[in-house]
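quick one before i forget lol
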Amino acid sequence: MLLPALVVLVVGASPVTVVPKPEPTSSQNPGPKTEGVDAIAIPLVSFNSDMGVGYGVVGGMFLYGKGHTPYQHGLGAQVFFTNRGIQNHYVRYDGPQLLGPMRVEARFEYKREFRSPFYGAGNRSAPEFTGDVDDIRYNYDKGSPGAWLRLRGRPFGESHPFQVYGGYSWRYTRVAPYEASMLSEMNPVGIEGGPTGQVLGGVLWDTRDSETDPTTGGAEELAVRMSAPMTGSRYRYMGIALSERRYFKLSSRFVLAQRVSVDMLFGEVPFFEWSSTGGVLFTEGVGGMSSVRGIERNRFAGNIKVFSNTELRFHAFDMKLFGQTMKLGAVGFVDMGRVWHPGVTDGPWHKWHPGVGGGIRLARRAAVIRVDYATSTEAGGQRLYMNFGHMF
């Protein structure tokens, strides 16, 4: 199951949306390329408890040019299916210096879920749920083609921590509730589906020593998004997201990493947006591999979401694999999250949903593989995840 990911690490392919800081040049560790092309396409096999066994093909192409780091143009594409009826296909582009100091990122994608989770709204939703994620009562059929374009830049120079970004996203969501499902019973705003066009923007103060595997510094972010008829949306609402990521190097082998994220939605919010958050990093929840591990994906959703992630990362040792240097490490973590939603009873303020666990990390330069096992106090609260990149 890890073989395709190991191939990516060995060839040094990295996600096209990150800018790894150049590493020192040596005979064992060559510097960044300045000319030519790198391309790779590999079979993709993965697993996590929320989506099941996944399979497909992922590919990338990097075009290098003098004066452009880490590359001049990055292209990526994926075709991906899972045995739980989920599809995730995309084509993406990344131009780090396409418009002078301005970075241009774009993505077109198609998502399909025959069993998209819906447990109702609020911090105490579906108390009768027993942990069966295939129960039709807690699922619906969803299809959602979409695209987004984002511009990012550092107005005070490449070495300055201040970043600003803006862009536009559009998605058409098709909703097909199952008979006798919670969605059919609740009939919330958004059950008709339709387009959601968003204008988005944000500012970021980034002092991390590395975007992909940080050990010191932090990143503070404020992001806003707005949907209205004038943006091509059927619904009128806005969102504000705040996040803090901080990294403390305790020793040469231990790093303490902490993230706190707050997302608030106001207005005529369609139910399929209750679980989404704004900002540079895509997260959904509360529940799942990007918010609170050990809890079913999107188990608790609502207009206001808060979650915290604490990780103790351990760099065990370096090893050689197919002639390449790899970092092998481990992590222990504690996640917790909470939701507030208008018109429902959310319980006392101290009612949070925790998840705890541990995992392993395998890294080479910008490429990181994570495998996590987590458990929680919720029904069916044991889950396994395999994914690319640190959680934050």
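fyi The radius of gyration is 21 Å.
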